[in-house]
């Protein structure tokens, strides 16, 4: 009888695995995970089930869980190459190249004639060699100079100013000096100094570069970013035109100055009768960002936005996204608030496409400039003293106060532990208490943790992003936590809606608006990502 039951469990487990495979093919990864889990409960000694569930976790960016499942597959069958393969892929996605290399070396040993394993091992070896080279030539943090401070956007261009105005100014200055001599019969030291200053200043202005005459895109006249400029720039981007580097530098450098003056936790006042819109991850999906503005209006003092991190990576229009958001910040700082996400970091940008896209559309210097400016982004916001907005989530300890967040020294790459890391990486969980992170970074926190944090800080609601949701949002923790995600049909494959939340003062009740993806040019997500990561996508 026992043998019969065991055979029945094995057969049922296989049926569940087949159902899970179908769900996976339909991009229903959460459902696939649930079905693989049921199969594992019936037969935990099948390495395939563990490896398949690891793959589904990878698709949901739950790399910590993927590594655990792949390790279990290896424990069940140490000769099962797919276990090492899935774990290596998860390590790669986390930027842990040396750990990934060990697993792909084992895949190669187990499958020496597999060309796919050979190709992936070679790419992983290249990545590790590149890291070692970068480490060898890297400058200590204490000795690094600001990239931004070495750039003067006024001088960016390919031709000297052709105007004869400086020459005319110099001639006028000389004529004025001659008249002074004719009238007074002498030249004082002061007059000579003014004369020399005028002449040198005129030639200094004339030495400034201007953009090429054939450039037909948006132009910033003088120092001020205007709404007309931003509209023209967005229309150019929509038509896949590029912005001149001179103006891109100006936008990023001016944004840097604005962000530099902000605290790590920014308070946003919303007067009675006014509103603010909170958006989640947009991940380089520029055409969906345009749709948000179409549905909800452009950012302005009367229609402010808070974008809650992860502006870049994955989608292949990240440069267009970041320049648009930064341009609105320059135009009117109170029209748009920007928070840092876990993807506003060097380690993520190297892997998930932003770094490659910046090199392709702008230049190498912009890679370093964006990395520097991302370190100036605030970590969290509080709206009207009641709504706490952060990209990831809460903390591994109780008792964290808003003053502790304000005191964080954010001007660095995100660390792998501590308050800053947890703000950017943590996720809610349905169970109370705390648990390990399914991502492998940060932690998972329950409704009791959310409740205590809100009560300790006299807050009503926690809004966070960081996770794709089928409806574009999810309300959890007894209504005290809302996840909002604003990249519909994420990576052109998830089929999810996007959402944003409008809060109107004084009641500050969340009004959630959902929307679907819109068409975009035929440039695939991850088009600029590292070669090895594209292999797995």
UniProtKB/TrEMBL annotation:
InterPro entries: Calcineurin-like_PHP, Metallo-depent_PP-like, PP5_C, PPP_dom, PPP_phosphatase, Ser/Thr-sp_prot-phosphatase, TPR-like_helical_dom_sf, TPR_rpt. The chain crosses the membrane at residues 171-204. It catalyses: O-phospho-L-seryl-[protein] + H2O = L-seryl-[protein] + phosphate; O-phospho-L-threonyl-[protein] + H2O = L-threonyl-[protein] + phosphate. GO terms for cellular component: endoplasmic reticulum membrane; nuclear membrane; nuclear speck. Gene3D superfamilies: 3.60.21.10, Tetratricopeptide repeat domain. GO terms for molecular function: metal ion binding; protein serine/threonine phosphatase activity. Its EC number is 3.1.3.16. The active site is at residue 343. TPR repeats lie at residues 13-46, 81-114. It is found in: Cytoplasm; Endoplasmic reticulum membrane; Nucleus membrane; Nucleus speckle. Residues 243-519 form the Serine/threonine specific protein phosphatases domain. Its main location: cytoplasm. Keywords: Cytoplasm, Endoplasmic reticulum, Hydrolase, Manganese, Membrane, Metal-binding, Nucleus, Protein phosphatase, Repeat, TPR repeat, Transmembrane, Transmembrane helix. It is a multi-pass membrane protein. Its cofactor is Mn(2+). It holds the Pfam family TPR_1. Interacts with PHYA and PHYB, mostly when they are phosphorylated and in Pfr forms. Belongs to the PPP phosphatase family. PP-5 (PP-T) subfamily. This is Serine/threonine-protein phosphatase 5. The lineage of its organism: Eukaryota, Viridiplantae, Streptophyta, Embryophyta, Tracheophyta.
């Amino acid at each position: 009888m026992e043998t019969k039951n065991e055979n029945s469990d094995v057969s049922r487990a296989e049926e569940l695995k087949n159902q899970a495979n179908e769900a996976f093919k339909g991009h229903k990864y959460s459902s696939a995970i649930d079905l693989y889990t049921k199969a594992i409960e019936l037969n935990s000694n099948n390495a395939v089930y563990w490896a398949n569930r690891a793959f589904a976790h990878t698709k949901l960016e739950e790399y910590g869980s993927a590594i655990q499942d792949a390790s279990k597959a290896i424990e069940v069958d140490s000769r099962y190459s797919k276990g090492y393969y899935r774990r290596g892929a998860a390590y790669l996605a986390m930027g842990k190249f040396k750990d990934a290399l060990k697993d792909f070396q084992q895949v190669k040993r187990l499958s020496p004639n597999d060309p796919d394993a050979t190709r992936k091992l070679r790419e992983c070896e290249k990545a590790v060699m590149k890291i070692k080279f970068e480490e060898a030539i890297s400058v200590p943090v204490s000795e690094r100079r600001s990239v931004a401070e070495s750039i003067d956007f006024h001088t960016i261009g390919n031709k000297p100013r052709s105007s004869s105005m400086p020459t005319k100014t110099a001639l006028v200055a000389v004529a004025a000096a001659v008249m002074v001599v004719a009238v007074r019969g002498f030249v004082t030291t002061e007059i000579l100094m003014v004369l020399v200053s005028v002449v040198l200043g005129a030639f200094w202005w004339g030495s400034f570069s201007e953009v090429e005459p054939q450039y037909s895109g948006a132009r910033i006249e003088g120092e001020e970013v205007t709404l007309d400029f931003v509209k023209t720039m967005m229309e150019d981007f929509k038509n896949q035109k590029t912005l001149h580097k001179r103006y891109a530098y100006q936008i990023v450098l001016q944004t840097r100055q604005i962000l530099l003056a902000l605290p790590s936790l920014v308070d946003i006042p919303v007067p009675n009768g006014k509103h603010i819109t909170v958006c989640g991850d947009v991940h380089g999906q520029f055409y969906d960002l345009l749709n948000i503005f179409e549905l909800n209006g452009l950012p302005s003092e009367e229609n402010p936005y808070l974008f809650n991190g992860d502006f870049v990576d994955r989608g292949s229009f990240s440069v267009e996204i970041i320049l648009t958001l930064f341009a609105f910040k320059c135009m009117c700082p109170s029209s748009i608030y920007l928070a840092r996400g876990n993807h506003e970091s060097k380690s993520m940008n190297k892997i998930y496409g932003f770094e490659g896209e910046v090199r392709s559309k702008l230049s190498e210097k912009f890679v370093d400039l964006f990395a520097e400016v991302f370190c100036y982004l605030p970590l969290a916001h509080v709206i009207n003293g009641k709504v706490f907005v952060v990209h990831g989530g809460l903390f591994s300890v109780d008792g964290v106060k808003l003053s502790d967040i304000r005191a964080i020294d954010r001007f660095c790459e995100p660390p792998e532990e501590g308050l800053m890391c947890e703000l950017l990486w943590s996720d809610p969980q349905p169970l109370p208490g705390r648990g390990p992170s399914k991502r492998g970074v940060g932690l998972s926190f329950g409704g009791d943790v959310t409740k205590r944090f809100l009560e300790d800080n006299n807050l009503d609601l926690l809004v966070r992003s960081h996770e794709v949701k089928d409806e574009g949002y999810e309300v959890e923790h007894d209504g005290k936590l809302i996840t909002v995600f604003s990249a519909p049909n994420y990576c052109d494959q998830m089929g999810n809606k996007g959402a944003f939340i409008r809060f109107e003062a004084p009641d500050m009740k969340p009004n959630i608006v959902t929307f679907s993806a819109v068409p975009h040019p035929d440039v695939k997500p991850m088009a600029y990502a590292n070669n090895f990561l594209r292999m797995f996508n």
